[in-house]
Specification:
The structure holds 2 protein chains of 2 kinds. Chain A is built from 11 helices and 4 strands; from the N terminus they run H-H-E-H-E-H-H-E-H-E-H-H-H-H-H. By secondary structure, chain A is an alpha+beta fold. Chain B is an alpha/beta fold. Chain B contains 7 helices and 10 strands. Chain B is globular, with a radius of gyration of 17 Å. The chains are: A alpha+beta, B alpha/beta.
Chain lengths: ~290, ~230
């Protein structure tokens, strides 16, 4: 085992209480950040589900030849924003209205003439499900002469956009604040470790150890603590998530936990905090002694 | 080996100088006492030698290094050519005597396979071969200081600096540690020992540099007459 690894592990062993305290502090700081991450993640996926309903509908003039519609649909399908194109005939529109708008079922039954026009319904790709892109697509559809009117629920799409903007902004601000608090707390914890080993650092310097040699074990120790703290934070998040879902069966159905990648991000964040915190703390200490 | 030329040191602007216009030279294989009351400037003088402090003015040369202008990266290289011993031993309490000594070799990048033999040899040299596995708390003050000396010697430095090494020891242990420093000097190592134990200085018959209020007021190499 090389000296840096041995010294880092020995330090863990020798300052057990402080090491456990450091790991716990890092774990709780990352746990809070992780919980916020979970909320943000689920909020984002809920908004994405709502956005799936963003649809652009072009109402087609009656008696438009079907060849003309088919040709136009092929053109529309290759719009960069478009995921899927469907033609809804007058009959299909009526059937759907009767099925979905139950309160008007009686009204539709008594009709002699179908009042509903045929339409082309466009589903947009996830990245384009917002007011701006829907409007661009609508404008382009207006260019087809057989298109009578284009609708995409302008009002609610705009409301969804602003909700998304607010959620993103608040998420970024709170996430940044949590991360900052974690960094400060972890920095203080690591500083305590450095101060506790000030004598050892002083002796190392007196016998001719270079600054990088002195830093080595601290950096490794910080990274290990960050990794352990991150792992504990992921376990705590999983426990809280599981408990929440178990308690609210109905509400918890659509919720999701971190994927492997996201859990790894939390671990890497822990390692970076531990490593970076140690680098700064030891560096500051070394400049003073 | 050690040369101070018109060295002054002021810790904070506006306060009295800790050292003022100090010049002297200590040659190869010399043993020199550094004496004076507390606050006379002995420790500052030693700190300038191992580059823990830089002079405000003047030139300090130790073992070929100009410590006044030494870059931070070069300080470890200087320290590897010095052994340093303190009154409070500065041992790591959670390591055995052998581990404390080995530590000095390990941090300077010595090969792992040569470390045990060198540690054993130097512990034998200071008379602690039998206590290699003892922790500092299990050793007497004199023995702890011997471990500290062993640690200072293990890199075979040409210069050994000792700041009040017998200050915490009883008379018997003091004699033992002093004799050890004399033996080390006899083997060719320059020894500079700061002390206010005038009895020890008087009976040793070694070169003496006396400090008072930051000035060097007496050097027995310049004046054969004792000042006390």
């Amino acid at each position: 085992m090389n000296l840096v690894t041995r010294e880092a592990l020995l330090s863990f062993h020798r300052t057990r209480t402080l090491s456990v305290l450091s790991v716990t502090t890092i774990a709780f700081a990352l746990f809070v950040t992780g919980l916020f991450g979970l909320v943000a993640l689920n909020l984002r996926s809920a908004l994405r589900q709502v956005a799936e309903r963003v649809q652009v509908v072009a109402f087609v003039k009656r008696e438009t030849p079907s060849q003309q519609i088919s040709a136009a649909m092929s053109d529309i399908a290759v719009f960069p924003e478009v995921l899927d194109v469907q033609y809804v005939s007058e009959t299909q529109a009526l059937e759907r209205a009767q099925r979905e708008l139950t309160e008007f079922q009686e009204v539709y039954k008594g009709l002699e003439v179908n009042p509903l026009p045929p339409s082309i319904e466009l589903t947009l790709k996830p990245a384009f499900r917002d007011g701006k892109h829907a409007a661009v697509v609508a404008e382009r559809l207006h260019g087809f002469e057989f298109v009578d009117e284009v609708k995409y629920g302008q009002d609610w799409v705009q409301r969804l956009d602003s909700l998304r903007d607010i959620a993103g902004l608040i998420g970024l601000a709170i996430g940044f604040a949590f991360a900052l608090v974690s960094i400060v707390i972890i920095g203080v914890t690591i500083r305590m470790t450095v101060l506790q080993r000030a004598r050892e650092i002083e002796i190392m310097r007196l016998v001719g150890a270079t600054d990088w040699f002195i830093r080595g074990p601290f950096l490794l120790e910080g990274a290990i603590k960050g990794l352990l703290g991150g792992a504990v934070a992921v376990i705590l998040c999983a426990a809280v998530f599981g408990a929440f879902r178990a308690q609210r069966m109905g509400l918890g159905v659509g919720l999701r936990f971190f994927g492997v990648g996201e859990a790894l991000v939390l671990l890497v964040f822990g390692v970076l905090l531990g490593f970076g915190g140690s680098l700064v703390s030891v560096g500051r200490h070394l400049r003073r002694v | 080996m050690i040369r101070f030329t018109k060295v002054s040191k002021q810790y904070t602007t506006g306060t009295d100088a800790a050292l003022e216009d100090v010049s002297f030279h200590i040659g190869r294989a010399e043993f020199a006492f550094l004496t004076g009351h507390s606050g006379a400037g002995k420790t500052t003088l030693l700190k300038l030698m191992y580059a823990a402090e830089r002079p405000t003015s003047g030139d300090v040369r130790v073992s070929g290094f100009a410590t006044a202008t030494l870059g931070r990266d070069e300080v470890p290289r200087l320290r590897r050519r010095l052994g340093i011993v303190f009154q409070d031993f500065r041992l790591l309490e959670d390591r055995t005597a052998a581990e404390n000594v080995a530590f000095a070799l390990e941090v300077t990048g010595a090969r792992a396979d040569v470390i045990p033999a060198r540690v054993a040899r130097v512990l034998d040299q200071v008379g602690l071969a039998m206590k290699a596995d003892a922790f500092p708390r299990e050793l007497s003050g004199g023995e702890q200081q011997r471990v500290a000396i062993a640690r200072a010697l293990v890199n075979e430095p040409p210069v050994l600096l000792a700041d009040e090494p017998t200050g915490n020891l009883d008379e018997r242990a003091t004699r033992g540690v002093f004799q050890l420093l004399c033996d080390i000097n006899a083997a060719g190592t320059v020894v500079v020992m700061a002390t206010h134990d005038l009895d020890l200085v008087r009976h040793a018959g070694k070169r003496t540099l006396e400090m008072r209020d930051g000035r060097m007021v007496f050097d027995s190499a310049d004046d054969a007459t004792e000042s006390w």
